[in-house]
Structure formats: structure tokens, C-alpha cells
TrEMBL record, chain A:
Subcellular location field: Membrane
Signal peptide range in chain numbering: 1-25
Protein name (database record): LicD/FKTN/FKRP nucleotidyltransferase domain-containing protein
A GO CC term attached to the entry: membrane
InterPro entries documented for this protein: FKTN/MNN4/W02B3.4-1, LicD/FKTN/FKRP_NTP_transf
Species for this entry: Meristemomyces frigidus
Cross-referenced PANTHER family: FUKUTIN-RELATED (PTHR15407), PROTEIN (MNN4), PUTATIVE (AFU_ORTHOLOGUE AFUA_1G03790)-RELATED (PTHR15407:SF32)
Domain of life: Eukaryota
Keyword set, alphabetical order: Membrane, Signal, Transmembrane, Transmembrane helix
Length: 311, 503
């Protein structure tokens, strides 16, 4: 009798364990907070209960941060240096691992304008080949890469850690709404990340006879010859790859004005210095008052506040 | 005194008559003056003899002049008649009375009123003739404006607006754009310029050839037809010398042997980029299924090329510039058969007004059209979203403007020097600009240039005043075109037919 009771209890508890673990542990989502981090004190990751298949999640406070590693977004001035470090370490790591990667979308647009990240950008966009992705998934998934970054001579070098996480849905080549991103390169200290998408063969176009068509899971379509052979160029001081027909890709995605307009997102491209500068409210008002946003030469538009309030 | 003059006599002068007698006397005409009238007095009055005129009683008071006294002996009151009651009053009288005023001009019964006079006018033939002429002239003017003048003016305006900052918030040429590996701009060797320092007699010629694409046989045939002499002639290719055709290596060998110049085309660009990953490795060749058909062909070609070919491809500049020929005759505005100015040789095209250093290399090797407003080029003939034009249209308009010496005031600026010049010109004021306009500024004005290009086989041979397109689609069974330029600046077009090598 006692034996039966204890056996029953054992089976019952086993049943309970299995069902509860089935609810939380066996469902595929990004690695649990406890396993990857101990700061901040608790996870700020969105649960996305309405999308159970979604693997990567974002923080509750911003779309561009990983909530497991951050509790608040960075301010504008700090973000830039962290993004640059994110990029440098990513390029270096991919080169070490032998993955073929290149800049795309917003990052490519920044490259085109002045070989730098656009100041209003909160994330970076890159692409890799299918072969590289398979290699990374097989050998480097959930790897943490430790870097010590250069710093001013008197200060110690910055120690940063980066996590490479691959989405297990990468094997599925069809267009998905929730699992568009195939991999992420995440800055563990700040929660910033790089979205990595893969350029795949377009199976449907292939069956229709168009053999050179490529596709990405986020619904972009490209022609093989527009991307390859990749060009080598510099970006933020590092050697990067860019697509072959970079200008065409940019114009198709963003329109002609993206490659010509000097005013965007409350920033102005300083033609003399060749960089994007944020407009302060007073400058914005001055420009609007002078009607200088439209019309007038783009040279000689001083963006310093000294000329605003001459003494 | 007046009485004495008039011969006025006493009332009771023995002439007492009855009133009826007086009336009778007054009303019947007298053949002669009565006795009591006295001596006649000379007056200057030339009108009717009022007193003795039978119609006197009906004369109105107005005909009686003020200073003209007539011979009379009757009291003045008798000369006053009542005719004034029947006479018409003048308009001034009724100034304050509006009742009768309405019908004054519009009285239909009156001859001189407005509707009647206009009706008469309209009915008249002369007026109708004039009206017809005016209407026809108006219609002609209106339609000539709408169909000819207005579209032309609108087009001029639209073309000009693309160059000015007014309508847009930026322009092509401000962003850093892509990077060219190699020499971007190269000037032709001075020894090879016809009529230049190496050619005092003016015997040399320049032979420009369109996209060869590996058609070696046709190239040799063309050179023969042109009468190419390696001692005096120099061959310049407009890029795309290899790919697609039957004998790519042969064409490169020939070009190297002739020491020909060429600009880099989009296919050479592709080959050079692919070479960075493919050459020097022992990796197995990529199949077309793993890459693309074009890439597989390029990979195959790269394996056939030798280092000297690779060096030749790498030496190809983005743009080749040729100075204006010294012996060329004076240039004219519409002369398509002569080239007197600087020449720029590129593969696909150049955007006007943007400095050559700022042109994006990708577009220089691929463009076919330009966006209207931002002047951003495109490899397509017509962009899907924006409004685009063939780039040579805008190029020709711009250089024609430079040729005529029209000002570029208000056009985009691309460098600090240009900006400083503009600031200087602005600070001069109207007097300074007037002085410049009359006597000319000291600095050199921008000169127009001729562009020689290939790349657009569908458009075929395109000879305009400022742009010469030489790609006539040889590899697809069209023609291979050469433009021969002699020392005097005269151009000659020579063509040979090609076999269709496109599979």
C-alpha cells in the first residue's frame, strides 16, 4: 500500500514536472535570462505571448535593445561609441570565424554618405551568406566573444563581451513574419545588437526559371549580380564589404532623395565637414525662419550656435 | 441819353390809340418804319429786326441778345414772350432729377441711344470683319501658346530647376558616394593628341570605338575599314571590351598590342572585383547554380586571363580626358560633325554641373538616365517612381548654355572655392555685376565639353552636339561603330556589321 502510494506520488510529480516544463522550457525562445546574465537585476524582455513562435525578443522600453542585458536605453551621445564598438567587434569576429558578411540597409546608407554610422540609427544591419550562417550555427551558436577595446593612453582598455545567438528557425527558408532575423550579435553590457539576415536562393523564382534571384526572410528581393562580387571599402575605420550595385540597392529601398537630401530626422549634413550633425531646436527654428531648409546653397550653412546669438 | 438817342417821346404826344389798335399795329407787318419810330439808329445787330418781325412774338427770350437794343418805343415788358414755357430745358437743369435719367442712353426709341448704336455697329460689315480678324488672331495666339510656347518654356524651366537648390533639399554630388580603385581621371598622353606637341603637321587621328564585348574579328575589320595606321592613329575604347563575346582574350591582346587606351566599363569592373576573391586561390570553380550565370562566366574568363591582361584592366581609368585640339577650327553652336572642345571619355555617362571628382564611379559606369529634380542617375532608362530623363538631354542643354555664355547664377555649388566666389560676386552689388557684364570678369568662365560614351546599346548611335554615344550593339548582331577625329576637329563615323553572339 505504501509502496503504491509512493509510486503514485512519484508518477504524479513526474507528470506535473513534465507538463510544467512543457509550458516554459521546451518552447523555443531566446536563452533564458538566468543563463546569460546576472545584471540588471531582472529581465526587461518582452514576453510576446501573442507570438509564441517568435525567437528573438526586444526589450520593453525600446525595439532596439535586448531586455535581458539592459534596463534603459542609452542617451544619444553614448550610443554612438557603443555602436561603433559593436560594429568593429562584429567584423573582427566574422573574419576570424570565416563568415562572408556585408553592410545593408541603413548602415549601407551611412557608408554611402560619409563612411560612418548615421547618428540617428539605433541598430546596424548586415547580411551574410547561407553557407556562412550554417557554419556559424553549427560551430559558434551561443558563443560569447571577449574583446578589450582601445582607449585613451591613460585609461585601461575597455573590456566588452558580445554574444552571438542564432535563431533555430534559420533552417526554414520561407518568408516568416516573426522570425525574420537569423542571428544577432549582442552587446552584453548595453543590450544593443546587430540584426543579421541571410541572403538565400529564391526557390520559387528558381522553379520559374529565374535562376539568379535571391531573397531574404524579411521579404526583400535581390538579384545575385547586384550583391556579388562584393566590394571592399572602409567604414568607421574598419575594412568592410559592400554590395556590388550599392547605389541601385539604396535607391530602390529608400528612393532618390535618400542619396541627395541633406536634411533628415532633425539632422543636417554639414557639407563642409562631411558629417551629419544634430540640429538643436534653436537652429531648426532659425533655418525655418530663414527659409533655408528649402532653397539656397548648402555651403556656408553654419550650424554653430555662436552665429545664432552674435554679441 | 438813351432816351435822346432812341428819340424817345412823351407818352402824350398826340398819339393816343386804343389797345386793340396797338395790337393790330404790332401784329401786322409794316412795309416801312412808322413815323413815330424816329430816326433810325445804326446798330451792329445783324439779326432779324426783332421789333418789326412778325414772328417776333414767338421768338424765345434767348434770341434776344443782351446788349442789342432795338428801335422801339414800346416798354420792354412787351418784348418778353412766353415762348420759354414750351422750349426744352437743357440737361443741366435736371441735374438733380434722376427719374428721367434711366432711359437717357438706353432708350430704345431714340436713335442715338446705346443699344441702337451697338446694334448698328454689329450689323455693319466693317465691324464684323474686324471682329473676325480679332477672334482668329486670339485663337491662333492661344493655341500657339498652349501647344508650342508654353511647353517649351515649361521644359526650359524644369531643366533649369534641376540645377538649383530652390525646389529640393539637396542634390547628387554632396554625399561621398562610392570609391574607385585605380586612376579616376586620366589625361591623354600629350604626344598622342592630334595637332599637339608631338604632331606639328596635324597628321594624327584619334579613333573612338564603342562597346567591343570580345568581338575581335569585327574589331579588326573595323580598323581596316578606318585605315588604321599604328604610327599616326590612336585607338580609344569606351569600355566593355570583354564579356559576352567570342574572343575576349584576343581583344585584350589586340588592344595591348596597339597600346590602345580604354576607360573602365561595368563589365571590367565586375571582373576586377571578382578577381579579388577568385584569383590566387586554388578553390574549385563556383558553379552557376551556386552563384549566377554571369558570375560563372566571369570566373571562367578570369582563369584564362594572364597577369598582363589583369594589369591592363586595372590600368583603365574611370574617365579619360582629351584637351581641345589646337588646330581645330572655330566652333559653332549646332555643328554636330566637329569637336573643338575638351573631350571626356566615359563608359556610361556623366552628370552635368557636378565636378568630375564628385561623380559616383558606379553611376559613371552604369547610368542611362537622370532624375529630374535631384539629378541622381539611374541604370534604368526610366525610374519606376521618380521622373527621369535620358542623361545626355540634360548634358546637352547644360553645355549649350555654357557655350552661349549664359550665367550659372543660382546653380548648385560643390566646393568651398565656388562658394567663396559666389559670396564675392554677391558682395559686389549691382554696380559690380553691371561692370562685369559689360567688361567681363577677369576669371575664366566654365567651358563646355564633349562626352564620348558607350554602354547604351538599345539607344544605338547617338550623335549630338555635346555627346557622342558609340554603342551600336555589336555583340547582339548590330554594328560596331568607330568615330574618327582628325587634327582639324572633324569627325567621321565608320561602321561594320556584327554577328549575333548572344546565346
Amino acid at each position: 500500500m505504501g509502496f503504491n502510494l509512493s509510486k503514485l506520488a512519484l508518477y504524479f510529480s513526474l507528470l506535473v514536472c513534465i507538463t510544467t516544463s512543457g509550458v516554459s522550457g521546451l518552447v523555443k525562445r531566446d536563452a533564458p535570462y538566468e543563463q546569460v546574465n546576472d545584471h540588471p537585476t531582472f529581465s526587461h524582455q518582452k514576453t510576446d505571448k501573442d507570438e509564441p513562435d517568435k525567437y528573438f525578443h526586444e526589450s520593453t522600453f525600446s525595439e532596439h535593445y535586448d531586455g535581458r542585458f539592459a534596463e534603459a536605453p542609452l542617451i544619444y551621445e553614448d550610443r554612438r561609441s557603443h555602436l561603433t564598438a559593436l560594429l568593429h567587434t562584429y567584423i573582427s569576429a566574422m573574419q576570424d570565424m570565416g563568415a562572408e558578411t556585408w553592410l545593408m540597409h541603413g548602415t549601407l546608407l551611412g557608408w554611402y554618405w560619409n563612411r560612418a554610422i548615421l547618428p540617428w540609427d539605433s541598430d546596424l544591419d548586415v547580411m551574410i551568406t547561407e553557407r556562412s550562417l550554417h557554419h556559424l550555427a553549427t560551430f559558434h551558436n551561443m558563443s560569447i566573444h571577449h574583446f578589450s577595446l582601445p582607449s585613451p593612453p591613460t585609461e585601461p582598455r575597455l573590456k566588452r563581451d558580445y554574444l552571438l545567438e542564432i535563431n533555430p528557425h534559420y533552417k526554414n527558408s520561407s518568408v516568416e513574419s516573426v522570425n525574420k532575423i537569423d542571428a544577432r550579435w549582442i552587446d552584453i553590457e548595453t543590450g544593443l545588437f546587430i540584426d543579421i539576415t541571410t541572403l538565400r536562393r529564391n526557390a520559387t523564382a528558381h522553379s520559374l526559371g529565374e535562376v539568379d534571384e535571391m531573397m531574404v526572410k524579411d521579404k526583400h528581393h535581390y538579384v545575385y549580380d547586384d550583391i556579388f562580387p562584393l566590394r571592399v571599402s572602409s567604414f568607421e575605420g574598419a575594412a568592410v564589404n559592400v554590395p556590388f550595385a550599392y547605389a541601385e540597392i539604396l535607391v530602390e529601398e529608400y528612393g532618390e532623395t535618400a542619396l541627395s537630401e541633406v536634411h533628415f530626422e532633425n539632422h543636417r549634413f554639414d557639407v563642409e565637414r562631411g558629417e551629419w550633425r544634430a540640429l538643436r531646436y534653436a537652429e531648426l527654428v532659425r533655418f525655418q525662419r530663414q527659409g533655408a531648409l528649402l532653397g539656397g546653397s548648402f555651403w556656408g550653412r553654419k550650424l554653430d550656435s555662436e552665429s545664432l546669438f552674435p554679441d | 441819353m438813351a432816351q435822346q438817342e432812341m428819340g424817345y417821346q412823351d407818352d402824350n404826344d398826340g398819339q393816343e390809340r386804343s389797345l386793340s389798335e396797338w395790337q393790330q399795329e404790332l401784329q401786322t407787318p409794316f412795309p416801312r418804319r412808322p413815323e413815330w419810330a424816329g430816326a433810325s439808329v445804326e446798330t451792329s445787330y445783324a439779326g432779324p429786326d426783332l421789333l418789326y418781325d412778325p414772328g417776333y412774338a414767338s421768338h424765345s427770350a434767348r434770341t434776344l441778345r443782351h446788349g442789342d437794343y432795338t428801335r422801339r418805343s414800346a416798354p420792354l415788358i412787351d418784348q418778353v414772350s412766353n415762348g420759354w414755357r414750351n422750349s426744352e430745358k437743357t440737361a443741366g437743369f435736371y441735374a438733380a432729377e434722376p427719374e428721367d435719367h434711366d432711359l437717357r442712353l438706353c432708350d430704345l426709341e431714340d436713335e442715338g441711344s446705346c443699344p441702337n448704336t451697338t446694334a448698328d455697329l454689329v450689323r455693319s460689315r466693317r465691324f464684323r470683319r474686324m471682329l473676325a480678324v480679332v477672334l482668329v488672331a486670339a485663337v491662333v495666339l492661344y493655341y500657339s501658346w498652349r501647344w508650342y510656347l508654353q511647353p517649351r518654356l515649361q521644359e526650359e524651366w524644369d531643366l533649369k530647376q534641376g540645377f538649383m537648390p530652390a525646389r529640393s533639399n539637396g542634390t547628387y554630388g554632396i554625399a561621398r558616394a562610392g570609391h574607385f580603385e585605380g586612376t579616376a581621371i586620366k589625361w591623354l598622353d600629350p604626344e598622342l593628341v592630334p595637332g599637339g606637341e608631338g604632331d606639328s603637321k596635324g597628321n594624327r587621328r584619334l579613333v573612338f570605338v564603342g562597346d567591343i564585348h570580345g568581338c575581335k574579328k569585327e574589331l579588326l575589320h573595323l580598323l581596316e575599314k578606318v585605315g588604321f595606321d599604328a604610327k599616326t592613329d590612336h585607338l580609344i575604347a569606351t569600355g566593355d571590351t570583354v564579356s559576352k563575346g567570342p574572343d575576349n582574350v584576343g581583344v585584350l591582346d589586340e588592344l595591348i598590342r596597339l597600346k590602345a587606351d580604354s576607360v573602365r566599363g561595368n563589365h571590367e569592373d565586375r571582373l576586377l572585383e571578382a578577381a579579388k576573391t577568385l584569383l590566387g586561390t586554388n578553390l574549385p570553380p563556383e558553379s552557376a547554380a551556386a552563384t549566377s550565370q554571369g558570375y560563372a562566366k566571369d570566373a571562367k574568363l578570369l582563369r584564362e586571363l594572364k597577369p598582363k591582361h589583369m594589369r591592363y584592366l586595372r590600368d583603365m581609368p574611370l574617365m579619360l580626358r582629351i584637351p581641345a585640339l589646337p588646330h581645330a577650327s572655330a566652333s559653332r553652336r549646332k555643328d554636330k560633325d566637329r569637336v573643338h572642345e575638351n573631350i571626356i571619355v566615359v563608359h556610361a555617362g556623366v552628370v552635368p554641373h557636378v565636378p568630375l571628382e564628385k561623380q559616383d564611379p558606379y553611376f559613371v559606369m552604369n547610368m542611362r538616365s537622370i532624375d529630374d529634380r535631384t539629378h541622381l542617375p539611374s541604370a534604368l532608362r526610366e525610374t519606376k517612381k521618380g521622373k527621369s530623363r535620358p542623361w545626355m538631354e540634360i548634358w546637352n542643354w547644360y553645355n549649350d548654355r555654357l557655350f552661349r555664355g549664359r550665367s550659372l547664377k543660382g546653380f548648385h555649388l560643390y566646393s568651398a572655392d565656388e562658394y567663396e566666389e559666389e559670396q564675392l560676386a554677391e558682395s559686389q552689388g549691382w554696380l559690380g555685376s553691371l561692370w562685369d557684364g559689360v567688361f567681363g570678369t577677369g576669371k575664366a568662365k566654365m567651358k563646355p565639353q564633349v562626352v564620348v560614351y558607350g554602354h547604351d546599346s538599345k539607344a544605338g548611335l547617338q550623335m549630338h552636339r555635346w555627346s557622342k554615344g558609340l554603342d551600336s550593339g555589336c555583340v547582339a548582331g548590330g554594328k560596331l561603330t568607330a568615330m574618327v577625329l582628325d587634327a582639324k576637329g572633324k569627325t567621321e563615323i565608320v561602321q561594320v556589321g556584327c554577328k549575333n553572339y548572344k546565346t
